[in-house]
Design brief:
Layout (H helix, E strand, L loop, with lengths): L6 H22 L3 H6 L1 H76 L13 E3 H27 L1 H4 L3 H24 L9 E3 L4 H7 L7 H23 L4 H4 L6 E2 L11 H17 L3 E7 L13 E7 L9 H6 L2 E3 L8 E8 L2 E9 L4 H15 L1 H17 L4 H25 L2
Length: about 425
């Protein structure tokens, strides 16, 4: 039995053979057949042409239909995969929120105990912590820590889904490390509980005081626990929106650009919040090395169109030791960017997939590179006319060199030098 898919081919073959035979005979007979058959020949010849052309059209139509069906099936598969990824991301989001709330519950219980006396913050360090209550609350905190660890194992083990969000790994690492240090302190101090019932002065638990907040000296609770948690939730929300149909457009992250491409976008106020999140990640990695971490470049200047890549410069004394920091920088997504390296700085790049999102420069705070980055930023922040002039130059260069970043960057050099000269002259003339 002839398969349905091959029927057009059979019709074409039969029609071609028949038409060829008729035409050949007509030629050989000198047109006698046509003369003898008259209208019958015309009708027969037309019939074979219809078969040939009809079979070809049928074949093309069926091929188009099959291609459309395959595209439809592929779209369905893609949507199903996106839906499954979205379900996993939403579950991760819910679990992260539940773990955070569990840790916050412990914080509320501990604060209620510590402030049970006269309610004055100054009296918190003088409070006595009963071991039985503390044991129960620490069990809850340990479960929260285990939940965070479970989430991080999922993130680390699914590079295809979470690899585009390296900052998520850094945020989870910060939260886990902070809770681990708080719990470790309690376990070390547990043997020092005395009396009947056993108690211990809260003053002997500084990490606990910081967790209770705002009684500790440092901002660790905010920078190592609360801010990373908020940042992680934002990452997951972006990822969830990106897996909704048409969501990649609606929920597109504020940062990201292909290498070599020149693209200007309007200034986005969320860039400053993103920088603060990134600065906290970098502080956890560069702790003890970075004297300052500054947001520079066009994304740091309100109202200025910019390429959606964040430039950050960290003041580091002694660049020779930067190699020791690179494994920790890699943990939060930064890789060496060799072309950016000079004697006064080290360049790193961070991105997701084919897009890069951040440039990080480790630079000597006394270097001209470091000073110029800050001077240029501060001058344009303070002077709207200079900012608008720079915007016009950038737009013109972007239109002229949409695929050539080197020529785009070189075209700005003259203006940058002029601004630095103005800044130096005005600074020298200041009282």
């Amino acid at each position: 039995m002839i398969r349905r898919a091959t029927l057009p081919l059979v019709l074409i073959a039969l029609g071609t053979v028949g038409a060829t035979a008729v035409i050949g005979y007509e030629v050989l007979s000198g047109g006698g057949l046509s003369a003898r058959l008259g209208d019958a020949f015309d009708e027969t010849y037309g019939f074979f042409l219809v078969i040939v052309l009809g079979g070809g059209v049928s074949l093309l139509i069926q091929r188009h239909i099959r291609a459309g069906e395959e595209r439809g099936r592929k779209k369905e598969r893609d949507l199903e995969a996106a839906a499954e990824e979205k379900r996993l991301l939403m579950r991760t989001y819910d679990e992260l929120l539940a773990a955070y709330n569990r840790a916050k519950q412990v914080r509320r219980l501990l604060r209620a105990r510590v402030l049970q006396g006269d309610g004055e913050g100054a009296a918190a360090e003088e409070a006595m912590m009963p071991a039985a209550e503390y044991d129960t609350q620490m069990e809850i905190l340990i479960r929260a820590q285990l939940d965070f660890e479970s989430i991080q194992r999922r993130v680390d083990g699914n590079e295809a889904l979470f690899g585009a969000y390296p900052e998520l790994k850094g945020d989870l690492s910060s939260i886990r490390r902070y809770l681990h240090e708080t719990i470790d302190e309690y376990e070390e101090a547990r043997t020092r509980f005395t009396g009947d019932p056993p108690t211990l002065a809260v003053a002997q638990l500084p990490a606990l005081l910081e967790f209770l907040g705002p009684y500790g000296q440092g901002p660790e609770y905010w920078s190592e626990f609360k801010r990373p948690f908020r940042s992680a939730l934002r990452c997951l929300r972006h990822a969830i929106r990106a897996r909704t149909e048409f969501g990649a457009e609606e929920g597109a992250p504020a940062l990201g650009l292909e290498a070599g491409v020149v693209q200007l976008v309007p200034y986005r106020a969320e860039w400053e919040e993103q920088f603060r999140d990134e600065r906290h990640r970098l502080r956890s990695v560069l702790r003890g090395h970075a004297l300052a971490i500054e947001h520079v470049g066009s994304t740091s200047i309100p109202g200025l169109e910019a390429q959606p890549v964040m430039d950050i410069v960290a003041g580091i004394e002694g660049l020779d030791g930067c190699g020791r920091l690179e494994p920790r920088l890699e943990e939060i997504g930064y890789r060496r960017w060799e072309r950016a390296d000079t004697g006064e700085r080290r360049g790193y790049r961070k991105g997701r997939g084919a897009l890069y999102t951040h440039h990080l420069y480790l630079a000597d705070p006394g270097s001209s590179f470091y000073r110029d980055k800050l001077a240029f930023r501060d001058y344009l922040r303070a002077r709207e006319s200079a900012r608008d002039e720079y915007a016009r130059i950038k737009r013109s260069l972007a239109e002229s060199h949409p695929k050539d970043r080197e020529r785009y960057a070189a075209g700005k050099d003259r203006f940058v030098r002029e601004i630095l000269e103005r800044a130096a002259a005005e600074g020298a003339g200041a009282p």
